[in-house]
């Protein structure tokens, strides 16, 4: 870039009508290089290695190099999955698991967001709430399972609460720090415009903290699925974790692996959803 | 805190847009305002000039209700509108929404706010940018939006804190013309804080020079509107002000 720009720039200075010179050094199409969505025909290099690995895996299974009780072939895993879909087990399990994650996210996320707003806003709330919250955060929340079983039994409640507990902290941290970073000049503008507190919160504070809150939401989703997976290992009678555990009892490695793939896909899906939300909420920056 | 009462309320008569009497304020040991007596007559433009650190903006902030530890009397006619040196637009709200925000205090409903916002954007020549995001505006455009937001509520008092300080010289001149036009049409009472004496003479009916925390000089600008920047009197007013500010040339 530097070597092509140098002479062009010099020529521009010396001769105002530098059209000819510029044509000799056609500008690099920046849009095509920098914008990720730009359409260009090229070899999808990033797909090559996964496809090769899949093929090797299938060939290894077919020739007996990979024992099926350790790692079934990709085809067998897909077949096991299809069986679950046909019997309706997968749909039912997904419904139960997704419900747990969403409820946990609403409960824990709501609490994390509210605490984050309070602590980000008020020095008193910060002094009173932050120390106990940091202490709680130091506890590995997955380690609380025995305690949760003692407290809440083995039904839906401990699972949802475990998800909620895991989700609350990232949202609390990112929200409070996002709110602390709101430009005081904008808050002053809101004040001279006569905004009420709730209007200031809605139109100034939350949009201003949105980039960080959304980062927190992405972390929260990841933790939500992780918490769910662990919570579903114990005493589940429904949900994806139950399907996986059940399959383990019958030595159905293929079903177990299929369940893991579904967990991964769910994680990817929610991550993608948050990114869509991010793009929409932060679209005012794109054109700048 | 002294026993002097702090009053930020409506001016007593309709001929005054803003008034201070004995306005004092200190930052630690340093007394920034040592008893400021200032009047902005209704519909008149008063410019406040002074060297940096002379407390110009402190007076404006007291009038805007952004200061709470001053003493003395501070009265304004209704709630003043404020435009700062930076536009301070909300970047996640469109130009139109930002201007409509200026009517929130008045309690207008959303449709009224929106219509009034478009009207004022037309007046400042930015109707075509109504649905743009603020980050896509040039510095001059953004400041015009900020001024539209300050004026959309048709206030009796407008406080302008070096509104063109961050703009280049040419944009500055055209912005001054936009303001002159708006002043002539709406008749706001204006307090303009600036360090540019030419801007003060071009826009104001009266210029106050702030020195050592008090108004040291008052200068009536007795020129036909709009003030002709090329008139010999214009230059004379400007050099008088520069002399008051201790600048020789």
Automatic annotation (TrEMBL), chain A:
It is found in: Cell membrane. The keyword Transport applies. One of its GO terms (cellular component) is plasma membrane. The chain crosses the membrane at residues 101-124, 136-154, 160-179, 256-277. InterPro entries: MetI-like, MetI-like_sf. Keywords: Cell membrane, Membrane, Transmembrane, Transmembrane helix, Transport. It is a multi-pass membrane protein. The keyword Heme does not apply. One of its GO terms (biological process) is alkanesulfonate transmembrane transport. It comes from the Bacteria. Residues 90-274 form the ABC transmembrane type-1 domain. Belongs to the binding-protein-dependent transport system permease family. This is Sulfonate transport system permease protein. It comes from Luteimicrobium subarcticum.
UniProtKB/TrEMBL annotation, chain B:
Coiled coil: none annotated. Keywords: ATP-binding, Cell membrane, Membrane, Nucleotide-binding, Translocase, Transport. SMART domains: AAA. SUPFAM superfamilies: P-loop containing nucleoside triphosphate hydrolases (SSF52540). The keyword Plastid does not apply. Pfam families: ABC_tran. Residues 18-237 form the ABC transporter domain. One of its GO terms (molecular function) is ATP hydrolysis activity. InterPro entries: AAA+_ATPase, ABC_transporter-like_ATP-bd, ABC_transporter-like_CS, ABC_transporter_ATP-bind, P-loop_NTPase. This is Sulfonate transport system ATP-binding protein. It comes from Luteimicrobium subarcticum.
